[in-house]
Amino acid sequence: MSDSDGFPWEIGVHDAHCHPTDTMASIAGIPEMKATTLTVMATRGQDQDLVLQAAQSINSQAPEGPDRIIPCFGWHPWFSHQIIDDTTGEAKTEGQKEAHYSSVLVIPADDTDFAEFVKHLPEPKPLSSLIAETRERLKQFPKALLDGRDEQITPGSREGRKLSPYKVKIDHQRAILKAQLQLAGEMRRAVSVHSVQAHGTVFDALKELWAGHERVVLSRRARGRNQDAEGAISAEKEDSDGKGQASSTKGSEGGANAIGTRSAEACQQELLPFPPRICMHSYSGPPDQLRQFMAKTNPSDVYFSFSSLINFTGAHARKVGDVIKALPEDRILIESDLHTAGPEMDDLLEDVARQVCGLREWELRSGVQKLADNWKRFVYG
Fold this sequence. Notes:
By secondary structure, the chain is α/β, with parallel strands linked by helices. The protein has helices at about 45-60, 95-105, 115-120, 125-140, 170-185, 200-210, 220-240, 245-255, 255-270, 290-295, 310, 315-325, 345-360, 365-380; strands at about 15-20, 35-40, 70-75, 85, 105, 125, 145, 155-160, 160, 165-170, 190-195, 275-280, 300-305, 330-335. GO terms for molecular function: hydrolase activity, acting on ester bonds.
C-alpha cells in the first residue's frame, strides 16, 4: 500500500510481536521503515544475543528519539526441550542429555530415529542459568519485555525450517513458562505469550501465579456505602476545622475503598510472581474464552494482539471478527509476526490496522491512535 492511501503513519504504528532477527540482513532496513517501533522477539538460545545486538545497534542510531526496537527475551516452546529444569533440586544437569530429552519429549511408539535425533541436539541448558541470563539482559534494557509461550506443537514448518515429529510435553513447557512469568513479575516487565491449542493451559498457569493476589471488586452496594462514608467524613472534617482537603486522604485510609487503594500500593512494593501486563500474541481462541482472561479480579492487565498472517487467514479468519468485537477497545494490539523487517512488515501492519478499525467501526485515524495508545500502555505501563 502507498502513502496515497492516506494511512496515518505519523501517529505512530507499533508492531507488538515480530521476529526480524530470523533474517539478520533485514535489520539494517529498520530505520527506513514507516512503523515507529518493533517489539522484537527472541525464541531460542542463539536469538537472545541477536535481539540484544539489534536493539543496541538500531536504537543507538537515533538516541534522542523513541526506541525503534523493544527487545523481548525468552524461549519459544519449540525449543523449550533444550532447557532442563534444575530449580527443583532433583534434576542433574551433567551427563543427562539423552535421559533429559527422553523425559521431556513425546516419542511416537513406532519411532526408531530418536537416538540419532538426540545426537544432534545441544547439551540441555539449566533453567536457573536461563533465568539468570535473562534477568541481566532485562537489567541492561529497562524497557525490555519477556517472551513466554506455551503451545501444543504440531508437525509443520516455520519460515522454511522443518520441524521434527517430537512434541515437547506440556508439563515441561508449563514449567519453563511459569519460571519466565515469575521473572517478569520480579522485574515488573510485560510479557508476550503465544498459546496454540493451549489457551486453557496458559490460563491455568497464570491462575496459579495470581492466587492470593486477586483484585478486590466491590459490589454496587459496597461502592454506594463507600461514597456515603466518604461524604460523611468530608462533612465531619469541614465541620471540625472548616477545611475539606484532608477528606481524600482519610478516605484512602479507611472504609471499603481502602481495600483497592492498599492493594495497588502494595503491588508497587511487593515482589509479585506474575507479570503486570500480558499480551496474548496472535490470539486464536474463541470469544467465550476471553472472559477468563478479562475477569476484573485478575491482577494482570491482559491485552490481545492480532496479525494478518495468522488471524485473518484460514480457519482463524472465521472467528477473529467476533473476538475483536468482543474485546474492550483499550486491550487490542496489532502485530506483523513477520521474520523479515522492511516494506512487507509495514504492509502487514497497515493491513491489520485497517482490518481492526473496520471491524470495530473506528474512523481510521482515531483507530490508529487507539492502537498506538494501547501499545504504549502495554509496554510502558
